[in-house]
Specification:
- By secondary structure, the protein is α/β, with parallel strands linked by helices.
- The protein is about 50% helix and about 10% strand.
- The protein has a six-stranded parallel β-sheet. A three-stranded parallel β-sheet has the order 1-2-3, covered by helices on one side.
- Helix 8 links the parallel strand 9 and strand 10.
- The chain is globular.
- The structure holds alpha-D-psicofuranose and manganese (II) ion (MN).
- Alpha-D-psicofuranose (PSV) binds next to loops.
Length: about 425
Amino acid sequence: MQIEKSFISAHNDLNLSAHQRRFEFASSQIANFDSILKKIAAFQITIPSWALGTGGTRFGRFAGAGEPRTLLEKIEDVGILHAINRASGSISLHFPWDSVDDSQAIRTKASLLDLRFDAVNSNTFQDQASQQLSYKFGSLSHVDKSVRRQAIEHNIETIRQGELVGSKALSLWLSDGSCFPGQVDFRRSFERALESMQQIYLALPADWKMFIEYKAFEPNTYSTTIADWGYSHLLASKLGKKALTLVDLGHHLSSANIEQIVAILMMEGKLAGFHFNDSKYADDDLTVGSINPYQLFLVFCELVRGMDEQKMDHAQDLAWMIDASHNVKDPLEDLLQSVEAIQIAYAQALLVDSAALAQAQEASDPVAAQEVLQAAFRTDVRPLVAEARRRAGGALHPVACFRSMEVRANLIAERGSLTRSTGL
Ligand code: PSV
Ligand code: MN
């Protein structure tokens, strides 16, 4: 389905006068609103190819309809999001789910929709039908050298596929670990994972990076080889400059102080970027900002401060991605909501009076520090985000616009109601 610009203009015309009133009020309270608008407009959030279909739990999956059947259709879906919000300008592929058969066609389609390819992801957490050896007891850390070799080769093949579409990073999440005490030798598992990753690191093209994701538990119940940011940082330090730690919000034990982790990784120049989502209990993969928007804001405060201190380009120098699953919502509507939640948290973090905060910290004055942070968090920045989107050619109200265009009904008419996207 092609999104007509005229439809977005009509949607904006209809909502313009109400928006203008709200925007005038919001901007009148912010001295540097023009530079904030530019930063919001430049900030792009990658859409994972596996979040375009309906997810499920281990108890079942309630299928959606009109899901993308091929990589070209997944790119088309991200194009729809980007046309509406002008902030979803890249896609992250997962292999072997997204095998690139015709790279020319894939690249052409993406560039027509103004999209680029972000990090590529390998998959050694499932066995594929064509696969010789099983990952049941691990992959890069497996006791058997031939299983490790197979997993190394898969990662190298993932890099090769990424090169075909112009990606510049390999994102590696290792599900290896153990379900019971005594099942694995912690030290040897870690060493074997490191040795395997060294082989993959050697295969990285000169201008590529390797992102190392960590996760406290799941699918393993007792231990995980790369369980937290400490393990990931240790591996990244041993591997070299191209290796960095990737933070997925849902991968921590509950109540972990993620903003503090971010602060230290940024200080060390070892943060790769983010997989955004939200959760109440564990890795729930919920819509960003749907449970704990204050935590998201605090994370962005550390990101903005870290990037400014190191003179980094907010939009370019770290990888920003959503990693979510949609069990009961339309995946595209959910992704529109997630992108907007990220933009809101980012805009609020840009409003923080950093001089006043530093002063409160130096004076050991927690009351003043809280006043500063919450003044920014409680500012309604939605009119600023909407204005940035409007100026970039997007819709004032993405979800309402998506619904009024009847996007899902059109996709069902084109693809059918029984389509199923690859992924989890
Ligand atoms: C694992 O939970 C994860 O967060 C990793 O990023 C995977 O690649 C992704 O989800 C999809 O399974
Ligand atoms: Mn993730």
